[in-house]
UniProtKB/TrEMBL annotation:
A GO term, aspect molecular function: DNA ligase (ATP) activity
Keywords per UniProt: ATP-binding, DNA damage, DNA recombination, DNA repair, DNA-binding, DNA-directed DNA polymerase, Exonuclease, Hydrolase, Ligase, Manganese, Metal-binding, Multifunctional enzyme, Nuclease, Nucleotide-binding, Nucleotidyltransferase, Transferase
Organism (species): Lysobacter stagni
Nucleotidyltransferase as UniProt keyword: yes
Designated name of the protein: DNA ligase (ATP)
Gene name as annotated: ligD
The keyword Transmembrane helix appears for this protein: no
C-alpha cells in the first residue's frame, strides 16, 4: 500500500518519445540541417514551445522529403500516431473530424518523427474550442514595404490596443511580417472575437489607408500592410512561438519584448542555429506573465 501511495503522489512519469528514424535525412537542403538537427532543436526549446501548443487543436506542416520538396498542412489525426491525442470537433462543412492535440514533449517528438517542421495552434483550447484565448493580428507587408514600416505598424497596433486597455505581445513570424498577440481570458466565443478583430483591422485601414489595408488581396497590397485578422476564428491558426518555419534558413517564430522591436531588422532574424543559445542566455522570458493577463472583450459586445 505504501508503494502504491508513493506512486500515486509522484509526478506522472514522462512518456518515452519514439525513436527518430532517418536522423541524417536532410530536411533543410539550403542549410544542410538534418532531421536530427530539427529533433535536437525541438528538444532544446521544448519547455518554451510546449505551453504555447499543449491542449490546443494543432495543425502541422510536414515535409517528409524536406523543404525543397512538397510539404503539406495537416489538421487531422492520422494512423500511426500513438502519443498524439485527438479531439473530435465539428468542421465548417458540418461533419466531425479528429484534430491533433499534444499534451507533452513525447507527443511533440512523435510529430517531429512524422517530419513536422511547423506547429500552428488554434487560439482556443481543445476542451473549450469556441472560446478564444488568443487574438493574433498578423501583419503582412506587401512586397514593397520596408521592414521599418512593419515595425512601425506593430507599434501602432500595440498603441491602439492600449487605447482599448488591451495588453499585447510581439513575435517575429520567421517570415516577412510580425504578429501582435492579445491574450484573453477564455470567456468570449469567436462570434464576438472575430468581428472585434475585423473592426480593429478595418478601423486601422480606414484611418491610414496609405499604410494599411484590411482585405486579403495581394494585388492591392503593394506598398501597404495587410492587417490579417483572419487568424481569428473557429479553426483558424497562427504559427506557434518557437516553431521552426519550413523556409530557407530554418527561421523561428520568436517572441520578443516590445523593447527589442527597435533593433529588429527582419521577420526571419532568428533561426534553428541561434535560438537555443539565445534561450540559455536570456534572463527573462519576454512573454512572462502572458497567462496571467486578465482581459476580455465582453465590453465590446454589441448591445
Ligand atoms: P509571414 O510573416 O511571412 O506572413 P505568417 O506565419 O504570418 O508569416 P501567413 O501567410 O500570414 O504567414 O499565414 C498566417 C497563418 O495562416 C499561418 O501561420 C498558418 O497558421 C495559417 N496557414 C498557413 N497555411 C495554411 C493552410 N494551407 N491552411 C490553413 N491555414 C494556413
Ligand atoms: Mn503573416
Ligand atoms: Mn497572413
Amino acid at each position: 500500500a505504501a508503494a502504491k501511495q508513493t506512486r500515486r503522489s509522484a509526478k506522472p512519469v514522462a512518456r518515452t518519445p519514439p525513436k527518430l528514424s532517418s536522423p541524417t535525412k536532410v530536411l533543410y537542403p539550403d542549410d544542410g540541417y538534418r532531421k536530427l538537427d530539427v529533433a535536437q532543436y525541438y528538444e532544446a526549446v521544448m519547455d518554451h514551445l510546449l505551453p504555447e501548443i499543449a491542449g490546443r487543436p494543432l495543425s502541422i506542416i510536414r515535409c517528409p522529403a524536406g523543404t525543397g520538396k512538397a510539404c503539406f498542412f495537416q489538421k487531422h489525426h492520422t494512423p500511426g500516431m500513438e502519443l498524439v491525442r485527438f479531439v473530435r470537433l465539428k468542421e465548417e462543412a458540418g461533419n466531425n473530424a479528429n484534430y491533433l492535440v499534444v499534451d507533452d514533449a513525447a507527443a511533440v517528438m512523435e510529430l517531429v518523427q512524422f517530419n513536422a517542421l511547423e506547429f500552428h495552434p488554434w487560439g482556443a483550447h481543445a476542451d473549450d474550442p469556441d472560446r478564444a484565448d488568443r487574438i493574433v493580428f498578423d501583419l503582412d507587408p506587401g512586397p514593397d514595404v520596408p521592414f521599418a514600416e512593419v515595425r512601425r505598424a506593430a507599434m501602432d497596433v500595440r498603441r491602439r490596443l492600449e487605447e482599448l486597455e488591451l495588453e499585447s505581445f510581439l513575435r517575429t513570424t520567421g517570415g516577412k511580417g510580425l504578429h501582435v498577440v492579445v491574450p484573453l481570458q477564455p470567456r468570449d466565443d469567436w462570434t464576438l472575437v472575430k468581428p472585434f478583430a475585423q473592426s480593429f483591422a478595418e478601423a486601422l485601414a480606414q484611418s491610414e489607408p496609405d499604410r494599411f489595408l484590411s482585405v486579403a488581396s495581394k494585388r492591392l497590397r503593394n506598398k501597404r500592410i495587410f492587417v490579417d485578422y483572419l487568424r481569428n476564428g473557429r479553426g483558424a491558426t497562427a504559427v506557434a512561438s518557437y516553431s521552426l518555419r519550413a523556409r530557407p534558413g530554418a527561421p523561428v517564430a520568436m517572441p520578443l519584448a516590445w523593447s527589442e522591436l527597435s533593433k529588429l531588422t527582419r521577420g526571419d532574424a532568428f533561426t534553428l542555429a541561434d535560438v537555443p543559445a539565445r534561450l540559455k542566455r536570456r534572463r527573462k522570458d519576454p512573454w512572462a506573465g502572458i497567462e496571467l493577463v486578465k482581459q476580455s472583450l465582453g465590453r465590446f459586445r454589441p448591445k
